[in-house]
């Protein structure tokens, strides 16, 4: 199975193909159209994962993030109006730290767990909601723009993958992973140097910050191609259905990063 830039997908197990290969996002096989060989009886815990499993689990995870995010954003807005920002900062940090811890546990322990994935989604909802609430007060309408922008990028890359407009090759995979590694190093350096008062200009809203956000958005977009390919391969190799939660978690990681970068970029552009 090809390596993905998303850490959640690097450890997907090769499933036993007791029920035969299952079709993925764009490679239908025999049996039920779009799903390959006949499925195992409903309720079989070891049946192979299908596209429907991935779609439903990802939809549930995204729904939790959106619901919690909207509630948190409304609360954050009320806190700003009341002149109290300390609680917002606390919620933002708590959501970020809880989300990070859960992400590390899920990734390194390879936990295909619905409760863990939904808990991660909820934590990210608090984190993103707190940030979005503040940004919405500063730049009315920016939240909807960021959501629509994220959805547009996701759908576009899904179409690109399904149509084969861009092939996921080993060379492309290495390029994206290398680019992602470079961006992470720059982010870490910017954070560390910022603690000592050194400004690299990556997050100050200037021209360099705009370019950096555009690069991050591009890398996140292309990461979706690797995510789709890994999910597709996992389905076709008969990975157990429970790992749909693991795939959903991986897609959520990319979606969260993409949304944050689009939100940042929109704020930079409105400052000009």
Automatic annotation (TrEMBL):
Keywords: Membrane, Transmembrane, Transmembrane helix. Pfam families: BaxI_1. The keyword Thylakoid does not apply. The chain crosses the membrane at residues 54-75, 87-106, 118-135, 141-160, 172-196, 208-231, 243-260. This is Bax inhibitor-1/YccA family protein. The keyword Transmembrane helix applies. It comes from Prauserella oleivorans.
């Amino acid at each position: 199975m090809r390596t993905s830039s998303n850490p959640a997908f690097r450890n997907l197990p090769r499933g036993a193909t007791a029920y035969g290969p299952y079709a993925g996002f764009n490679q239908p096989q025999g049996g039920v159209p779009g799903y390959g060989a006949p499925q195992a009886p409903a309720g079989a815990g070891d049946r192979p994962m299908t596209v429907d499993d991935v779609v439903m689990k990802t939809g549930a995870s995204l729904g939790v993030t959106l619901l919690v995010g909207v509630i948190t954003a409304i609360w954050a807005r009320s806190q700003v109006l009341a002149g109290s920002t300390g609680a917002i900062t606390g919620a933002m940090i708590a959501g970020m730290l809880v989300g990070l811890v859960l992400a590390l546990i899920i990734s390194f322990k390879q936990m295909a767990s619905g409760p863990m994935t939904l808990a991660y989604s909820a934590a990210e909802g608090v984190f993103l909601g707190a940030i979005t609430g503040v940004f919405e007060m500063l730049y009315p309408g920016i939240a909807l723009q960021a959501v629509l922008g994220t959805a547009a990028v996701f759908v576009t890359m899904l179409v690109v993958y399904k149509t084969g407009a861009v092939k996921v090759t080993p060379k492309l995979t290495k390029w994206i992973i290398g680019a992602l590694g470079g961006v992470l190093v720059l982010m870490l350096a910017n954070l560390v140097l910022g603690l000592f008062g050194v400004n690299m200009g990556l997050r100050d809203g200037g021209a360099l910050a705009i370019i950096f956000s555009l690069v991050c958005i591009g890398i996140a977009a292309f990461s979706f191609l690797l995510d789709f390919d890994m999910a597709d391969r996992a389905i076709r190799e008969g990975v157990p259905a429970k790992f749909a939660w693991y795939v959903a978690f991986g897609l959520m990681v990319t979606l969260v990063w993409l949304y944050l970068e689009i939100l940042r970029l929109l704020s930079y552009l409105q400052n000009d």
